[in-house]
Amino acid sequence: MKDGEEGNMYSVKCKVITVKNGWCYAGCGTCPQKLEEESDEYFCGTCMTTLKTTTSRFRIQLRAADKTTQADFVVLDREGARFFGISAEKLFQDNDRMRGPPPAQLLQIEGMTLKFDIKLTDYNIANPTSEYTIWKIGLEDDNNNSNDHPESIEEIENGIGNDAVARIGVTNDDALEKNVESPDIEPKQRTNGEEDFNTGGDDDVANDKGNANKLKRKHGVIVSDNEEQIE
Q1: Which of 2, 137, 186, 187 is the most exposed place for a label (fewest CB within 10 A)?
Q2: Phi-psi region for residue 48, left (φ > 0), alpha (ψ -120 to 50) or beta?
Q3: What is the pLDDT of residues 110-126, one digit of tens each?
Q4: Distance, CA of 125 to chain centre
């Protein structure tokens, strides 16, 4: 765990099981707020302005597991654009849909093991089965994350259950997480994640490594000759 001005930060290493439907929302072009539709116009409750057009913003919902359990995570707009190298607006224009299956660019992380930097909020403490907001995504062999010794999901959840985490203020991103509707999310259940974390045949492993290599190159990580042959 890392203490900072933004609260208690945790780092976890886990395997992405699925990228859920409903990957973006109609947002304000000035702030991250989700817009309210009013006839043929849209209203931003943060900027207190009426708009004719919307800006697509990321709200990528993931389910991931480590060797202790599973949990739900969410990637918001700024980190989604940084990690995937494309804005939600551009991805929406290319795919022309917000609902239904996510675009292929997002699905490529399914089966990959990634590092997530997350911050526990008042909302997480009050609702232990809520999603964890990811503040930074790193590749498995990326050493630039804030914590070189990641905790397990179970350790974080036990910390919440024991009220061991200090209560912290809710930031604008946290407020957005609560305000953005997610009609496609199924009920959240905590189950043992070891089976999902370790399963997959040889073809699945090869595909996972191929996807990982593409993201490694995008993030400036050197890919060895042996890794290149996987693709």
Answers
A1: 187
A2: left
A3: 999 999 999 887 787 78
A4: 19
